[in-house]
Design brief:
alpha+beta; Secreted protein; signal
Length: 610
Amino acid sequence: MTPLPRRHFLAGTAVAGGLLAVGAPGDASAAGGASASGRGWADGRVDKPFLALLTEAADARVAEVVDGLDAVLSQLNDLGQARPAARGLRLLTSVHVWGDAAHHHDGALIGPMTRLVDALAAAQFDDGLYDQGAVHSPPDTAFSIVDLGLVYGLLDADDHGGTKAIRATLRKILLKAGARLSTGGVHTPNHRWKVCAALARINSLWPDARYTRRIDAWLAEGIDQYDSGQYSERSATYAPIVTNPSLLTLARLTGRPRLYERVRRNLEATLHLLEPDGEVETVHSRRQDQKTVKHLSEYWLQFRALALRERDGRFAAVAATVQRRGADQTFDETPLGDFLAEVLDHPELAAPLPGATAVPEEFTFHDPDCGLVRIAKGTTRTTLFGGTDFPDVHAISSGLSTNPTFLKWRKGAAILDSLRLSPQFFSLGHFRAEGVERTADGWRLWAEVRAGFHLPLPPRHRRPDGRYPLTDDGRFWSAMDFPHRPKEWRTLRTEVRIAAADGGWNVDVEIGESEVPLALELCFRTGGTLTGADPVSGRQNTYQLVKGYGTYTVGDDVITFGPGNGSGPRQPAVVDSGERYSWLGGELTPAGQRVLITGRSPLRYRLTLR
């Protein structure tokens, strides 16, 4: 797929009329009833239901954007948040230029669009940047510039007299931002690619060697992608919203077709992370989505783009599923109507999808780069996770994978969102596996943690004034010169073996040698019915399975779990998140209905899930 020329978008003629013209320089102008440009357009072949769905949704969003204009401008003027304003302008632009929209060339939109672009110009610093969460931030500015570059391209191609002043203001914003983005820095891996996409947008309108040199410099660092296809942040928040769209934009606007391969590999890995209800597995993420639920909808146009480019029936099936669900699904950052602008910018996305082929439904997928295992069989989906960063860096921080969930299981609509193990060992917190490996009958996860009692300093390290440096003993800091002290160690070893059994799982836990209380925490998705477990006093939505078996039921789907392992003061119904959390007043309590099975190490215990 070759890059399209600068001025390109879908021009007006109703979908119902059976024609769809695409404007580009070198052909007739869009406004003049252009000839088609791009593969599959010469005969007017378009996915009419797809375009109709996006058009209706975009038109429906207009009132929401206009009615919320004051709030968005307040965010921009008072807090420097440019993204909502840029995204609102993008939505209004899409329906203004698109001939099939109810708001096509609607004069009532010129006022709101002008207010938005003027406010964006006023909020932009002299150096071309915005705040948006960080003062004078190049990467945060890039998010808005990508949208504004798209907006300018659509308005320029439309060339409507009512938007002439808007385009002039946009030009000033974009050129001012381009000068700074071509020299500024970033915070995170995905920021590099967003900055490159922003520069590629501006360069496609007003070519400048400064922009291309900066793009070349960032790309020369290499794309941060593992062999498995996941990017280094392992995130379903950033892959579909930032990295993949940026790489697709760069591939298209700067003539780098090899970048399509990067997106393809990420989408192939994502095929194994999809749940039947449209959720995406995130337990392995290094970003904030490691503890939230994300959805397939953000990946929609990426699967569509690669399905069309490579005639991949698997990707076509995923894109068709999102289209079929339409508004009856959860959208995260991008509402349904906001996708229209991207299709107008890249009209080849509106071509009919190739024939769908089956996506993986029965599989065992092991991603060693992320320490993740996904197993699909019938109506069940299982996630095993042994890939946190904690064993390597011993820190809890943004940018690290620290989720202690090591097993998740879905049995139809009955969802065990999390299985965790929390020993009360020197307040070091949850069991976080050091890895996950295949065994003869299933899978194994393991970890070893230790804590020391500190002995007197050797004579050569003693100070008569007692003023030792602040150092870290792995749990806390103190003026004790910990590195030079001999230790008396206490060790806790944990091994979890997981094997399929009777349509479910046997989870064998062995923990020792130190003697400490512990709790297995099963967290079920809110909405089902729990039986067999007793409420824990003073803790909402928390129960203890003392004996026998419990059940969790949603409709006709039932998960049976157990057995209980007793109770008592030596095995309290307590989950210890660890001092790294408790010192800051934090905790790791997952949302849902939580069932604790308690014990005391050394312990061998089999949890059955059926």
